[in-house]
Amino acid sequence: MTVERQLIRDLAATLRAQVAGLVVKDLEEMLEGLSDDSGLANVWEEFCVQVQGEHSFFWETYLEIVEDFVVGHIDELPLAMQRVLSMGTDVGDGWLDDPEEGGVVPIFADDVAVMLSSDVLALAADFESPSIERYKARGYEGD
User: Fold this and answer.
1) How far apart, in whole angstroms, are the C-alpha atoms of residue 76 and residue 15?
2) Exposed end of the chain (fewer CB within 10 Å): N or C?
3) Which of these ranges, 17-21, 68-72, 138-142, has the smallest mean pLDDT?
4) How many angstroms separate the CA atoms of 38 and 18, rounded?
């Protein structure tokens, strides 16, 4: 692996973690969610419960909310950072094998959004809190 490629991967990983963290923060700030009387603190915890257990009737809505936040944060990044994230995808990594001479580095927006949404899903799968544990203990399997 070239030094340049390693730098791109390292920077892309840093950006991915930052954007995923911003999405988590956005969801934590949404105090009124889709579940009624769940005892969960916010939409982030509702999403975590969905990821860690059975999906509720609202699963697609949760995914849309996450994707909207992901896309919004990507769009706020400088173009150079969007390109770095794009090169961090499988498609972008493949493009690096045979870049166009003198061409512009492309942005694979859909692939970036999927990659970052997957990062948020992974964070949700591992997230724990007392209110989530109480929710699970009551035997809820989705709302």
Assistant:
1) 12
2) N
3) 138-142
4) 29
> Taking 90 as the threshold, does the pLDDT of residue 122 lie above it?
yes
Which distant-in-sequence residues (6+ apart) come within 8 Å of 119 by Cβ? 16, 17, 19, 20
Q: CA-CA distance, 101 to 81, in Å (whole number)?
A: 21
Structure tokens at 19: 């954007």
Report the C-alpha dihedral over residues 92, 93, 98, 100, rounded to 10 degrees: 30
For residue range 52-73, list pLDDT tens digits in order: 998 889 999 999 999 999 999 9
User: CB–CB of 50/142 below 8 Å?
Assistant: yes
- In the chain, % of residues over pLDDT 90: 71
DSSP-based three-state secondary structure for 19: helix
What is the C-alpha R_g of the chain? 18
Question: Would you state the structure tokens that stand for residue 100, as one six-digit string?
Answer: 């166009």
